[in-house]
Amino acid sequence: GVDGVAVFDSAGSLMASSGLLYAEVLRSVRPAARLEMRDSPQDALVFVAPVGPVHAGDQDQHGVGGDGDGHNEILGSVLVQMSLAPLEARKNELIFAAAAITTLGLLAAIWLARKLSQDVVRPILQLANTVGVIKGGNLKVRSDIEAGGVLKLLESGINDMAAALEAGQRDLEKRVAAATAELQTQKEVAE
What we know:
This protein has 191 residues and is of the alpha+beta class. 51% of the residues lie in helices and 17% in strands.
């Protein structure tokens, strides 16, 4: 916001001031021919603008009135000192908001990764474990995962494969037993 305002005559002498102005700003004022931004302390902006008479239809590009011959009659200057504190506070608010949004985004990403891990990776690991048990010779094991879609289809295929292998093993055992019994019978007949 505006910290203070000062009015100077054409010689640069202080005529009036209001608000809180830096002493070094007041000491360094010289008359301005046009709107200028002056050197100022780090936490403030200082603007100096000329003051002169304005005649209807007789303004230059800066809104300063002339004497009709294109010459500007400067009566004095106005200095306005504006604090950068509100801008700094707003900047800090925006930085905090950006940090909060980034943190929330990261937390959401972590949550999503954990959810995907539970919904996708865990069932895949359970299916891989079931395949490993079947590979080890246990054809009675079946998979029972809590998943849908393609993973449920894969589970069904693994369970069907295990059932088919188990049925094939029983059939093979029956055939081996029958062939062994037939060979035993032929051996006894041959003796």
